Amino acid sequence: MNDNLEAQAQALFTSWFINYDPFQHSIDEDGLPLPLTGWENGILDNCVEFINGYAFKSDDLLDEPTTDCFDVFKMGNIKKGGGLNYDGTKSWIERKYCSSLMRFVLSSGDILMSMTDMKENVALLGHTALMDINNKYIVNQRVGLLRTNGYLGISPYHIYLLTNNPTFLRELRRHAHIGVQVNLSKEDIVNSRVIYAPENVNIAFTKMVKPLFDAISLNNKEIQQLKDVAYQIQAQLSR
Fold first, then answer.
1. pLDDT score at 100
2. Contact by Cβ (8 Å): 66, 92
3. Within 13 A of 72's CA, how many CA atoms are on the CB side?
4. How would DSSP label each residue in 6-47?
5. How far apart are CA 196 and CA 202, in angstroms?
6. Does residue 91 contact residue 53 with C-beta atoms inside 8 Å?
7. What per-residue confidence (pLDDT) applies to 97?
8. What CA–CA distance (Å, rounded) separates 225 from 235?
């Protein structure tokens, strides 16, 4: 159900902001659509604040959670193809060590991007997850944190769909640095070219996709609750 809801949102994004289907537009010499007059060329940095994840020391991280800790958000928390993997946490850190790191603590609406991938199989690079939980996760290095700044009424849903759109990803990955691994720098990401619609278009788009993401978030909460009940039953049976 969630896959279907997200596919609907992505199809709508592609229709509006890649193909310009709802808008009268011209075609270039290659047969590709050109945006309307009044749309503007810019870069991703116009609409987001970008923060590199914090470089935690491995000795400070826990292999099991305690009663007062953050889940450390790493690339394993991002699904291939985009999305939040709630079961991807492998490390935790006690909150008492993070009093000076609150800018790295994640809130609902934060967007997390994978900045590293394997050279032989680039499947995760550039994909993002959309956070829908407050004050549970803290972001680790090699994950980029993108926070929308309100530019032209652009919402986190818009940026999440943009960064997981194949057209955007192909262009972004062209700028990746190839070594033992494939890497994106902050500059590669924030300087990505974006065509911005007028504010009224962006606001109208958000009104259309928000119910889809609200439904996804509600489904995920119910799934996690069911998993918690299953773990509790399993623990009782194993005693």
1. 97
2. yes
3. 24
4. HHHHHHHHIIIIIS-TTS---B-TTS-B-PPBTBEEEEGGGT
5. 9
6. no
7. 94
8. 15
Q: Residue 134 and residue 164: Cα distance in Å, rounded?
A: 22
Using an 8 Å Cβ cutoff, are 54 and 139 in contact? yes
State the pLDDT at residue 35: 65
The label of the residue with tokens 């491995």 reads 58
DSSP reduced 3-state for 101: coil
In contact, 63 and 26? CB cutoff 8 Å: no
DSSP assigned state of 176: -
Q: Which mean pLDDT values do the consecutive 10-residue runs of the chain (239 residues) have?
A: 95 94 79 77 97 95 95 96 93 96 97 92 94 97 97 98 97 91 96 95 97 94 84 79
Separation of alpha carbons 69 and 13, rounded Å: 37
Q: For strands 116-118 and 111-114, give the pairing.
A: unpaired
Continuous segment of H or E residues that includes residue 169: helix 166-173
